[in-house]
Amino acid sequence: MSLLQKKPENAPAAGKVFPTAPLEMRFRLPTSKVRELLREDKMDELVQMGENAIPELIGCLSSELKEKAAEALVRIGKPAAIIRRLKFMEEWIPRDRNAAAAEAEKMMVAGVLARIGKDAVPALVEALGDSNETVRHYAVEVLGNIAKKYPEEVAYAIIHFVNGDAGDELLEINSSNDWIANKINEILLECGEAMENAA
Question: For the whole model, what pTM was predicted?
């Protein structure tokens, strides 16, 4: 059997995809196309691409086009898709890339979610129960920022989530991370104070 014909061990059957392979590994818009639209300020076309443009737009957050890319992401919205990309960045992108650049990119993603505002709250609250600690960390940080402007929406979403079926799971996941648990409590206290002051 030639090298071209040899089938690697544990390879999926013909026509199958690896079950763990995320969407980003199976479909990507050409980076050059997204960059071209950003350079030409064709925001409407990027918005029409919607969720399919998100991976490449996030990739542009570490480039000279970062401000335009962030604006496009805010206009597209889709916070759940942005959070999925954040998780992808943490779990699939090689660890040997520039750590400072990777962290700066994640901070830009967090900034985009904060700019989306209250529309991002449901996805961020759900991310508090994510299995990835980095995703939970950024979710709680962004929720804290959004809560300063929308305390009622954030408090209601967190309480509803905790009191629902996900409450036990959230407690178990974050039991090993006192910082996140304390941060959630801190956000709720700040929301309560803000609502009292506004009453």
Answer: 0.76
